[in-house]
Amino acid sequence: MRIAAILLGSALPFLPMLPASAFTAYVSNEGSNTVTVFDTDTFEVTATIPVGQRPRGIQLTKDGKHLLVAVGDDDTIEIVDTATHEIVGTLPSGPDPELFTLSPDGNLVYIANEDDNMVTIVDLAERAPVGEVQVGVEPEGMGISPDGKILVNTSETTNMAHFIDTETHEIVANVLVDSRPRIAEFKQDGSEVWVSAEIGGTVSVIDPATKEIKKKITFEIPGLRAESIQPVGVRITKDGTKAYVALGPANRIAVIDANTHEVEDYLLVGQRVWQLSFTPDEKYLLGTNGVSNDVSVVDVESGKVVNTVQVGELPWGVTVSEN
Amino acid sequence: MSPETSRREAGFPLSAYLICLQGIVGRELLRFLHQRERFVAALVRPLVWLFIFAAGFRQVLGVSIIPPYTVYVLYEVYITPGLLAMIQLFNGMQSSMSMVYDRETGSMRTLLVSPLPRWFLLSSKLWAGTLVSVVQAYAFLAIAWFWGIEPPLWGYLAVLPALFLSGLMLGALGMLLSSLVRQLENFAGVMNFLIFPMFFASSALYPLWRVRESSPLLYRICELNPFTYAVELIRFALYLRVEPVALAVVFGCTVLFMVGAVLAYDPARGFLARQQHDAGGHP
């Protein structure tokens, strides 16, 4: 193990010489009402795009031409052209949109409206709402199954994961999880959906077929009080072997074996790490540090934090484009 | 210096210098190898800081990103360069303590009557002591690696010149002090009045920006403390960077202390002469 680490370590200084495909990362800064754009090869900030009030949820359209930013205090989702960095339109999201997700074909946007306990469904091409689903109090996390048939929404106050049939727009099951569920994330093969509970301090692994909690992942960091461990962002690799959970004010990202559900390591990052995103090649994992106003870069292969990028105030969400 | 001595000095072949250097370094290494307790003690001291002190402070001191770090580091990672410098500080004092001992037992006189120039004898002694401290520092780094303190691999190489330079500075400081201390018993005083203040009033345990937040005066003191620069020189080198200010200060102080030590050990002019004179005057 150590020898492997040494070999890997001695190779590291030469890695920058290899041609790396550069991607572009977009970070929503909740405090400064901007989106920071940086290159994932040089980790230099290339642009700062002013957007609406309180940007949080952030995602790219499937073609990568547009960036969608949920600006909660403006009650809309702004559409930013990724080439010109101009705001080219908005989506009728309903009030206070926080997080949203796209259907696998990229045509529909599912939006959690934190203030009115609703999930709004918007057609991206038409920029028009096509449906609404009444859910629990303070909806937040949005995860969609890889086949697009099931949408999982979490409600922060009701402490539930709502399984919504995307055909009928009906809730087919409610799974009670721990306090303040934040994020729902499906495994790529659709076998599991992971729901993080911020106050409960756990991640529930739910079997979407039976709607039963298979496993509750708990976290323990020597020297830290249990209250400071608040799981929020969850990301699972495409091959379903590794998962990463941002632990908020514990300033750590947990590395989890996604097959055995055992925590393997805790990586020290900045203060109040919130949302996570892989680069498309899964070489790096980016985590937004809300209080320290930066983004930590984790090298997935070596499992080490390798860089830090200064962004705007209160960075919240992050997404990385293929281009 | 009489014309005769300078002629004699000039006449020594290089081999004579080398034999002398080999003798002094050999003696110091032998002493180091035979005093296994000293080696253990030199390692245990920083390890106690690392394993116990740093563990306790893990949560208290959130270390934010300051150069040379590019990522967030745990407190134990932050204090490692400071502990390396601490090893060298203690080693410098210890080897100077051994000089006081040598002087008391008379073996110092054997050394100083060598026909080779005094600056050469003292520098050889200094090099020997520094070499020992560098060995100790690497032993500590090796143990720290298993504790999760993993600087970049090339950093282990880059830190070598930094360790030598800081070792020379602290050794030279010790040598200067040993010329001022009359008896071995007084050395405890040196510990209290020098080692601890130097160690604590530096960037070894806390970043200076944090010191400044709580006490601007202490911050000034830390800034004037050469030990701070030794720590920073080691810290930057370990992460493959050069801190020019630290490099200049450490280099300048090394020269200053060394010149001071050579002058102080000169029986004709220095403190040693006065001490011996005093001792002779009052039997």
Polypeptide structure, described:
The complex is a heterodimer of chains A (323) and B (283). Chain A contains one helix and 28 strands. By secondary structure, chain A is mainly beta. In chain A, the strands form seven sheets. Chain A has a four-stranded antiparallel beta sheet with strand order 3-2-1-28, with no helix packed on it. A four-stranded antiparallel beta sheet of chain A has the order 4-5-6-7, with no helix packed on it. In chain A, strands 8-9-10-11 form a four-stranded antiparallel beta sheet, with no helix packed on it. The radius of gyration of chain A is 19 Å and the shape is globular. The two termini of chain A are 35 Å apart. Chain B has 283 residues and is mainly α. Chain B has one domain (3-281). Helices cover 78% and strands 0% of the residues of chain B. Chain B contains 13 helices and no strands. Chain B has helices at residues 3-11, 14-34, 36-57, 75-105, 107-112, 118-146, 153-180, 187-200, 208-214, 216-224, 226-238, 244-265, 271-281. Chain B is globular and about 55 Å long. The model of chain B is unreliable at 1-7 (pLDDT under 50).
Spans of chain A of 5+ residues with little confidence (pLDDT < 50)?
Answer: 7-19
* SSE sequence of chain A, one letter per element: HEEEEEEEEEEEEEEEEEEEEEEEEEEEE
Query: How many domains would you count in the coordinates of chain B?
Result: 1
What quaternary form is this? heterodimer
Residue-averaged pLDDT of chain B: 83
What share of the residues of chain A lie within helices?
A: under 10%
Number of separate strands of chain A: 28
Number of helices of chain A: 1
Q: Please give the largest β-sheet of chain B.
A: none
Helix content of chain B: over 70%
Shape descriptor of chain A: globular
Structural class of chain B: mainly alpha
Q: How are the strands of the largest sheet of chain A arranged?
A: 3-2-1-28
Rg of chain A, alpha carbons = 19 Å
What pair of chains forms the biggest interface? A-B, 19 and 15 residues
For the biggest sheet of chain A, the summary is:
4 strands, antiparallel
